[in-house]
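Hi R.,

Here's the chain you asked about this morning:
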Amino acid sequence: MEILVNREPLDFSLEDESSLGEVIDELAEWLRTGRFAITSLDVNDRTYAIHDRDSWADIALHKVKEISVEALPLSQADHATLIALDEYFSLLARALEARDDAPIGELAEELPYVRARLAGYFPSLLDADGRVGVCANRELETGRLPEPVAAEALLAQIADVRTILQTREREYQDPERELALSLGQLAATAGQLVDVPVQLQTGDEATAMQTVIRLTELLTRVMRLVPLVDASTPRPGIDIGGVRRFAEEVSPQLIELKDAFEAQDSVLIGDLLEYEIAPRLARLGQLLPEAGGDT
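And here is the predicted structure, written out as tokens:
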């Protein structure tokens, strides 16, 4: 049996694998160590959808003469997936708007996969049961065109999801620009953090939590963007080494902050925000090109 990766023969040792699924799992893990992901699969010149595991996983190896996979760097694979998800929702929106039931059946079949991928990229979309309820409609899920009122509600939901997808797509299109914007937004939150302990003590927990949630979202975004900037062709500008050090320093403080909130320890929350995190945020402007930071 021959294994090809990006059309190049691969010297890949097999042990006790008996099914195609076992081989692909081993191959995917090996590629992941090099920060690559499998994006397409051909077996004996037949193309299979890589996400439709049920269609190929149980194929017996003695029936396989050639396995050919395409693999992309993880960042490119993620970007391609986000684009595909956005295109899916674009197609679904067009079908709902045109009251066209022809593509609905096929789109409905893909909906469980789409929800699973959304859960991986956007955990905030998960409900209390750990499921993504995007486009939850009995008619749609069974391949039928929803009634007009339900379709309108679905279209509004689709618009929100596409906004989230396109926002994440911009991170891959121009990670340095998105990193600079996120750092500027983080620096601007420094002054708001010192108000959080007072808000907690005076019963304004909602405002306090909004500030902390925004802080967490921005920090998560920065940490997600740093490796994308590292992988891109760098332009003179952001002190990426300084940003990386900032992310490493603030990560353990975020864990402490989470624990403090769970313990409802407003004193520790105040100390962490005012004396540990806020000063670091205030210095972020030094890492941006317009502030004359090191490049």
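One quick note: The first strand starts at residue 2 and ends at 5.

Cheers,
M.
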